[in-house]
Specification:
The chain is an alpha/beta fold. Helix content is 33%, strand content 26%.
């Protein structure tokens, strides 16, 4: 199979690539993740995923391989975006807003097809129901440090799963890579899966 550049340092995305048996090289794009606040959460996620792919194309200066994958995940509620918390207090504020309510997790995947010189981008919206947290539970979770570097200040695949009462949509998308949709993208773009 042909190698894919994964424009991400996410360990979860790397795990899913390995699970799918995809050969890949890691090349984090390190883009500026500022966005136009007038865009919807889905539009923001898709724009960032495409921007990551374009950044790798730019860095490789015309030597881009046949395949590049970029992805981005955002947590949103009531039109507000919850990015990566900047501090413990920021994480506490996010979790206080999310607890006891439903929120959306959107992951966009952008796939560059070097033969066609095209980028296919798709996004998946899932709903997560966070149970109410006591002050003791909040402190326990914050003390784990698991909130660091993740959108919405929690990892559903980690200890935060203790507080997730329900999800609607794609679990793998919430983690960071919607595997079904990504597989369909590969197939529809002619990736030689299994060859």
């Amino acid at each position: 199979m042909e190698s894919i550049i994964l424009a991400s340092g996410s360990l979860r995305r790397q795990e899913y690539f390995r699970l799918m048996g995809l050969p890949f090289n890691i090349m984090p794009s390190l883009i500026n993740e500022d966005y136009d606040a007038n865009l919807s959460p889905r539009e923001i996620t898709e724009e960032l995923a495409v921007r990551k792919v374009n950044r790798i194309i730019e860095l490789l200066q015309g030597r881009a391989p046949p395949w590049i994958c970029g992805a981005d995940t955002v947590v949103s509620m009531d039109g507000n975006i919850f990015g990566k918390p900047s501090s413990r207090e920021d994480a506490r504020n996010m979790l206080n807003i999310l607890q006891g309510r439903d929120h959306h997790v959107i992951t966009a995947v952008a796939l560059f097809n070097g033969r066609e010189k095209s980028i296919d981008c798709r996004s998946v919206l899932s709903t997560v129901t966070f149970s109410p947290l006591s002050e003791v539970e909040m402190e326990w979770y914050l003390n784990t440090g698991e909130w660091q570097g993740v959108a919405g200040a929690y990892k559903i695949q980690g200890l935060a799963s203790c507080f997730i009462s329900h999800i609607t949509g794609s679990y793998t998308s919430i983690v960071g890579l919607p595997m079904y949709e990504f597989y369909v993208m590969l197939r529809e773009n002619g990736y030689p899966y299994g060859n």
